[in-house]
Design a protein that fits this description.
By secondary structure, this protein is an alpha/beta fold. It contains 15 helices and twelve strands. The longest helix has 19 residues, at about 325-345.
Length: about 425
């Protein structure tokens, strides 16, 4: 149903709309849409669909404590939602390092990195990430979204072209938009479509943007085919390894290492909010490129720098990871087991090849009903709807962890199987 000024605000049925309807609404007043959206939220809350925004009151372990807004009390939930793939956010040695550094430096950097926000711990982290990734230089941002935003907006100019996989993260799209660049989109992982686009361009100022692991589908980029096409047409390559750093490759450097193509990537993006269990982002590449980004990336220059104690915790993670990869081994054991059990239960997990496992639901209405039921049953997952994914391919997104037990995984599968059977398409 189209949202317009003739809609009765007192009779809005949330089942008739998606969030896209409100983002595209244009009233006479800029704030008019908030009245309609508030009515939409109120109806969704009454029906038990608002499973977002329940405050978490424990560490993001495999089974955590959540204040249930509907129950009006704290409850234990199975946690298949956090990006804490290797459990480093609550590792005792990481916490100890952060606490010790916190006492020395205080709670934050309290300045932009080009002023007084660049600490010895920041420099040490940049050197550590560059060394780990096998690159000349690195720059550390205060968040992952800001990394893509800053890198793309400073490298691209009006008239330049950013060619991206249709499933690329919002931060990649937004970075190219901020630069005023022309955006071209190719079908997911389709090197032939990419080649048709590159062949028709009349400029050499082109960057192709891809992800190592796609965050909504869990599949890997077809890097060999895409690199081959990019090299043929002289296009630069940006690879976002947010969900693949510390997970793929013999040394954990990501999907580029997994395919043996690290030297073919012009700039690699990553985050500290996934496998590292912290917050922040980074870009690695040749030294000249990194120096340029540090002076021109607006989300770096005009944002407060990453906190010293955060940098210290990430450095400790690197140290632990390079000495012991048992958590990674356990993550893959859990991932393979979960993928197998979900398929045995008759659930559609798409083409996942990673610790990110979608469970395809279908239409938005069914997703809402399923999310309401699994919330009641004590299962916390990502509830992903349009426009993040196709309106016909809405899904639950499971994030696996090295800390999940077989019992917890079995309980998760049972809840999903029973719920999907009760709520068929």
């Amino acid at each position: 149903m189209a949202l317009d000024k003739n809609c009765n605000i007192n009779r809005i049925n949330c089942d008739d709309y998606t969030q896209v309807d409100f983002s595209e609404y244009r009233g006479d007043d800029l704030f008019e849409v908030t009245d309609y959206f508030s009515a939409y939220l109120e109806d969704a809350t009454r029906k038990g669909y608002m499973v977002y925004g329940n405050p978490i009151s424990s560490a993001p372990v495999a089974e955590f404590t959540v204040y249930d807004n509907y129950a009006g009390k704290e409850r234990n939930f199975l946690n298949f939602c956090s990006y804490n793939y290797l459990g480093y956010s609550f590792h005792p040695e990481v916490i100890g390092e952060v606490q010790q550094t916190l006492g020395k430096y205080g709670t934050g950097a309290v300045s932009a990195p080009l002023l007084s926000g660049y600490y010895d711990m920041t420099k040490e982290l940049e050197n550590g990430i560059a060394r780990f990734k096998g690159k000349e230089g690195a720059v550390v941002f205060s968040n992952g979204y800001g990394t893509n935003l800053g890198v793309l907006s400073c490298l691209l100019k009006q008239g330049d072209v950013a060619v991206m996989d249709i499933l690329s993260h919002a931060s990649i799209y937004d970075g190219a938009r901020l630069a005023g660049a022309t955006i071209k989109v190719f079908s997911h992982n389709n090197a032939e479509h990419l080649e048709r686009i590159l062949k028709e361009l009349d400029t050499k100022r082109v960057i192709v943007c891809i992800e190592g692991v796609y965050s909504m589908d869990g599949d890997l980029v077809d890097l060999p085919a895409i690199v081959s096409v990019c090299k043929k047409y002289g296009a630069r390559i940006l690879l976002d390894e947010a969900h693949s750093t510390l997970i793929f490759g013999k040394q954990g450097r990501g999907v580029a290492e997994h395919f043996g193509l690290e030297n073919e990537i012009d700039i690699t993006i990553g985050t500290f909010s996934k496998s590292f269990g912290a917050i922040g982002g980074f870009a690695v590449g040749n030294a000249k490129l990194i120096s340029y980004i540090k002076m021109y990336a607006r989300s770096y220059v005009f944002s407060c720098a990453i906190a010293p104690h955060t940098a210290a915790g990430i450095l400790k993670v690197l140290e632990l990871y390079e000495k012991d990869k048992s958590a990674l081994k356990k993550l893959w054991e859990n991932t393979r087991y979960m993928q197998s059990e979900l398929k045995k239960a008759g659930l559609d997990t798409g083409g996942t090849q990673s610790q990110v496992i979608p469970v395809i639901v279908g239409n938005d209405r069914r997703l809402r009903e399923i999310s309401r039921v699994i919330h009641r049953e004590g299962l916390y997952t990502g509830v992903v709807t349009y426009p993040a994914v196709s309106s016909k391919r809405t899904r639950l997104r499971l994030s696996m962890s090295s800390n999940h037990t077989k019992e917890q995984m079995d309980r998760c599968v049972d809840i999903l199987k029973n719920t999907f059977e009760k709520l068929p398409l």
